[in-house]
Amino acid sequence: MNSNIPGIRRVALRPPTLPPAPHTNTWIVGDGPLTVFDPASPWEDQQHLLANEIEARMANGERIERIVLTHHHHDHVGGAVALRDQFSTPCNPIPIVAHAANVDWLPGIHLDQTWAHGQTLQCGGRSITAYHTPGHAPGHLVFLDEDSRAVIAGDMVAGVGTIAIAPHDGNLGQYLQSLEDMRGLDASVLLPAHGDALPHAEAVLSFYIAHRHSRIDQVRDALNKLGTSTALEIAAAVYTELDPRLHPLAAVQVTTTLIWLREQGRATPLGEHWRIT
Known about the structure:
By secondary structure, the protein is an alpha/beta fold. The chain has 7 helices and 15 strands.
């Protein structure tokens, strides 16, 4: 499903992403000069799908003006360099753009420009404003189309499943605050990186906040019942609906939650084990 917003088109590409999301959405914004958000796939067959879309637009006199990355994760940036190299010319070098916090997380990709919080750019006749929304990733940006109030949401929300937050580059407290900040954008629709467009943006964001707080309560309750225990033991108690083979993946999310509880003074680490404070 496309966004049904004139000037914003989706190309769903298959990247090396986690289930249940089979695709990452690449959003093409503008008419004439095009801005391409999250050219996702490192695989040639998927890159050809995106290239075919671009070539069809170029046949009508359009061109890529810039490539924008919502954040550094590999299932969002895998085709950025290939797309730039294929379509850049001496007269039209295509910059790769992201938040400056991504620089240290993208060793294989040079950022030619950065897009800061609150900065508005013209993207093929559309005014697009960037908002820094850390939590899922340090340099995560979402992008508000000022006319339609559509938000290119990256991995802040998803049209399939929910959002993973890994402790090595994520922060649950920042993620919750970023969701609250997004509620203030008065979005008409959220255009996520995975799954279909999400109308009723306020309701979606409220659900995500409530869901995350529910998981926090479940983790704390499990830790209270189990006593001193590991993230894996807590995951098995909380994520009872999952195949036990997926509990190690769930334990990563539990660890992120435990770190948040520690920051709140509500849990204490003891090596690989945790206890209620």
